[in-house]
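Late entry, evening session. Most of the bench is empty. Finally got around to the prediction I had been postponing all week. Sequence below, unchanged from the version circulated by S.P.
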Amino acid sequence: MRGVLRALGYGGRVKSPTYTLAESYSLPAFELYHFDLYRMHDPREWLDAGFRDVSDGQAVSLIEWPEKAAGWLPPPDVIIRLTIADDAREIECEATSPRGAHYLETSCTLC
């Protein structure tokens, strides 16, 4: 996540949301939310935590372990897969909407 935020121009402290489930970052163009849902045990916890209010289309949400909130998340515009191959990290980006395709074509510096 730190690399993603640095690529987007964020210079502040980057914290892991492993225990808090969410961290937010104010970027010049938008608000970014980083969710780590690993510790969720039931998809309804997404609603109980009030996270649905953040996924209103006005901010960018990066969600780790999205299957933990299955059925409650809006469809993603872009799916990013990170893998470790030997000693290197690989990134794969897949657009799943016209909005995601536009982003990958015009703005994405990660993929």
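Two things to note before I forget:
The mean pLDDT is 86.
The chain has two domains: 1-74, 75-111.
Will write this up properly tomorrow.
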